[in-house]
Amino acid sequence: MTAGENMIDHDLLKYIIFRKIQLDEPLPYRLMLDADPSWNAISKYLAFSEIHIGLFNHEIIASIVLYMPDKDTLEIKNIAVDERFQEKGIGRMLLVYATRISIKKEIRTMMIGTSNASISQLYLYQKAGFEMTEIKLNFFAYNYPEPIYENGIQCRHMILLKKYL
Ligand code: ACO
What we know:
This protein is α+β, with helices and mostly antiparallel strands. The chain has helices at 9-15, 29-35, 39-46, 90-104, 119-127, 139-143, and strands at residues 17-20, 49-56, 59-70, 73-81, 109-115, 131-136, 149-150, 153-154, 158-164. The chain has a single domain (5-164), classed as Aminopeptidase. It is 31% helix and 35% strand. Bound molecules: acetyl coenzyme *A.
């Protein structure tokens, strides 16, 4: 099987390996920038976070960045699946994987933030057990140099969601 080849989703999911990135591996820049278009913003949390990846045929096709501001809390700062592999259940699996890591670390609260315009992400996170708890008004409008649009709506506000373990 080669990357991107059409296949039944369940078959694909069986072949994906999730693990922490190793020090000598290249960072999945393109994936991380898909989730957060500001390298400036990414670099602020990257140094203090764990990066985990999803591999298919030795190729990195998904990534998730986990930040632990304190011993009880884990924030998913960045989650992305390669465009060729989206809508096949990998995003959902990444959230299950992050939840397993959180349980192992005895984390009590998981957090994830996305924009008001990110409709499919809000759907995915709520289906995975996250609940909307806060809106950071104008977060994207103030912190990003260019306006960002998704689904024809400007990404102005950050919707914060939490999952209590
Ligand atoms: N439109 C409609 N529904 C969608 C879409 C979409 N674009 N994407 C996912 N879904 C639905 C799926 O149908 C599925 O629904 P179901 O559980 O009812 O069957 C559910 O969402 C889960 O979908 P997955 O296939 O598991 O998600 P996917 O592998 O596509 O990953 C992700 C989702 C990570 C958001 C991916 O689309 C992506 O990388 N997008 C670009 C980067 C991005 O926006 N990242 C998140 C930014 S916020 C942050 O990083 C904290």
